[in-house]
Amino acid sequence: MSTSQRPVLVLQPSVNTTTVTTTTTTTTTYAPIQLPHLPPPSSPKDPKSYPLLHANLPQSLRRFPLVFPNGARAIFRDGDGGDEDMQEDEEVVSGVGWRMLKRDEGLQDTNVVGLAEAVERYGKKRSHNSDDMMEGIEVPSGSNATVPPPRKKARAAALPQISTVNAAAPPSPLPSPHGSPSPENIWPSAPPSGTSSPLPQAPLQPDLALTTLLTLPSLLSHFTALPAPLQSHFLLTLLRHSPLPVLRTLHSVLSPTLARDFLTLLPPELVSHILSFLPFSTLARASRVSRSWRAIIDSDPVLWRDLLKSTKIWFGGDSENSFANSIYASRRHAMRNQPPVPNPLPLPHPYKMLFKSRHLTRTRWVNNPEPKHVSFPAHGSSVVTCLIFSHGRIISASDDHSIHVYSPDTGERLRALTGHDGGVWALAACKDTLVSGSTDRTVRIWDLATGRCTHVFGGHTSTVRCLAIVKPEMIDVERDGVITKEKWPKRPLIVTGSRDHSLRVWTLPRPGDAEFRCFGDEDQVDLAEVCDADENPYHRLHLEGHDHAVRALAARGRTLVSGSYDCTVRVWDIITGTCKWVLVGHTQKVYSVVLDLGRNQACSGSMDGTVRVWNLQSGQCQHTLTGHTSLVGLLGLSPSYLVSAAADSTLRIWDPDTGELRHTLASHTGAITCFQHDEFKVLSGSDGNLKMWNVRDGSIVRDLLTGITGVWQVVFEGRWCVAASNRNDATVLDVWDFGNENDDDWLGEPPGGLYDEDIFSDDGDDDDKIKFYKNKRFDDEDEEDEDDDDEQADVDAMDQDLVPSESESFVEVDAPQSRQTNSQRLQTESRSSADIEIDADTSEGVEASRWAPGAAARQNSRLKVSAVSSSSRRPLNLAEPSSSSGPARTLPNNDETPTRPRIRTHHTNRRRA
């Protein structure tokens, strides 16, 4: 009870019924009786000494009924409750020409009548008529009602003043200083009568409850004067004589007050140790107990790290650190862009967010029998060559020259990016920036927010077959035998690989940087001309060394790994441009590479059916993984698994540390055309089926697609899965959502653990650290390969390079058998002595090759070239360089596939010094 307010005792109106010839019912309403104040605890008023001083009483103790011996009823209301109910009751009490005052109305100027005086007045007064007034009744101002004077009557003997000291008290261990008068003498059943008219009864007959309420201040003063042991003994005696309902009421008051939050009192290390014994489901419930528990549990990195390890979803540290760094980067970015919002709770640690995401990834994909599924057409009937999922957007590219952006929720096409003059065969995205490579030999950069093409980079002389965005990250760098952590590259880079046998390194433009196009907006684009990359301020390096088309690449930090049709794998430093290693061992073309910086190794898959694991520090082949019987065209790497997919219709799961074969996935009946995996599952497409496998035991989980013509691409991240397939000669995109309504914070981990947050922050220009070296070409002996006709069908099915376009052009070259095989003849690009112009003063360091001027001149006599279109096989003689007097040369057809390149016309290719 608040000490600033007084408790009141509300008397129930008494009813006096007199029966003569008619029945008259008189209802008398009494003003609330103010009970005496309870004194506050004696000094000191320390809340710690009086923990229940400000405790909230339960509702049952703030308002409860009382019944007195004569049947009268009253309601006890504590001083801090029941005001609204009182006002409602008081407003009902009114009559003709009068109304009852509200509690806070007129009491300051009106004397409050005590209980004894009110009883005395009831004994001295009688009602004249229905308009009589009582104490506490106010006549409204301005009323014309006249009130007759009260009738004279005999004055009753005055009752003695009631004192709380003289009032009867309940049994107490303390003696009463005065004798208690008999209640019958103090509270007569009816006031003295001076007339025969009916009189109202006395409001109540006092009993032990009322006398206790009246003497409670005295009892409280006695109790506070007792020593603490005697107070405890007295209260214990009372509690021992209290019934169970009373004890329950006291328990409801004492428990919240005396409770102690042990988690907030213990040291953090001990709290973390105690919570480590709880399963994650109990931790989730415990975090909802209170704000302090929520803050303790959410912000404990050790707790969630140990939980990740105990549930076997901790993958070694690199992926976990990358996730945490991305969360911190996104929070820094949010704080810079918008003012901080006050939050009483600290933000959860990234490990807690990671645990929830991985737990959902592990369970939802298996336990959700009917995920949300949307299917919609895309790209007409053209082949989907690239498919990525980035920041809630589906981005698909096709050999119809277009790039489309779709919403995964509805399947609505958000953007159509047009501008390429050839099929798009390479894509990479980073936030709102998209980079694409095409058969038109250009690299284009797009703003996904607006759909504009902001940059066009030229320089490659054939199809841009593969590309990657290299994002800055902390890597191990060895300097003078000491390994330190450094951030490389300093700015995001683009690495592109082409069928022109070379790779190029570009700076990824920031949003808002000056736009660059290798040709003007209004210029007629002549695809036969090669753009000079030296004029491009974003061009950094031209990496030459491969003797055939660059088919695959992977890049992180300062390391670039490229795989080529020349059967070699090369390791480059993309900052200096030096070729660190030429990895020789494959006997046929290299189709896929992956880079594992954590283990300092790279893996490559080849047409020879093997997967080789290379040591990047020594350049040696650590493992040769055998088992596939055909082209290994696809490789995937996660922290714990290396997965290879081949044209022999199988996928194999390897241990990247030891090279041990863990599982063979062999339920497909055709070449594997696409796949992706993480630490829980593998999704693979082939022969009209899209299957999901358990990566840990190699079992089939479910079939996502069946009975279709073919599956071209599949990609997943977090709750989303997207597949591009062909059905009835139409291209279709299927989207599955494995999340529930409450899974909005399900964060997916991108393949390779590369995140986009803050890639442009703390950019440093490292151009001063770049040294351009003239790359030495390693003369690798060309190994003679004989293609098996029976195997070629599966190889063609897996290699999308062989998908025909509407019209094709290819080059046939007659060369010595020791230098070129049959398959190389169909894929070798013709060059003449005029294709390369090297000044005498810059020819040093340019090695002799079959494309050098002398070698080209010697081969001119044996070079036979014919261009074939889809409608005719009219030969076109390109053996001799064109001249102004000769006939005009026919431009090559724009529609080409990556293995059937466009024939280059005469141009000047200037090497970068």
UniProtKB/TrEMBL annotation:
One of its GO terms (cellular component) is nucleus. WD repeats lie at residues 417-456, 543-574, 583-624, 625-664. It comes from the Eukaryota. One of its GO terms (molecular function) is ubiquitin binding. PROSITE patterns: FBOX, WD_REPEATS_1, WD_REPEATS_2, WD_REPEATS_REGION. Residues 862-874 have a biased composition (Low complexity). Residues 170-180 have a biased composition (Pro residues). GO terms for biological process: proteasome-mediated ubiquitin-dependent protein catabolic process; ubiquitin recycling. The keyword Protein biosynthesis does not apply. Residues 817-833, 880-896 have a biased composition (Polar residues). Pfam families: F-box-like (PF12937), WD40 (PF00400). Residues 124-204, 743-762, 773-913 are annotated as: Disordered. Keywords: Repeat, WD repeat. The keyword DNA-binding does not apply. Residues 901-913 have a biased composition (Basic residues). Coiled coil: none annotated. Residues 780-799 have a biased composition (Acidic residues). Residues 260-307 form the F-box domain. This is F-box domain-containing protein. It comes from Psilocybe cubensis (Psychedelic mushroom). The lineage of its organism: Eukaryota, Fungi, Dikarya, Basidiomycota, Agaricomycotina.
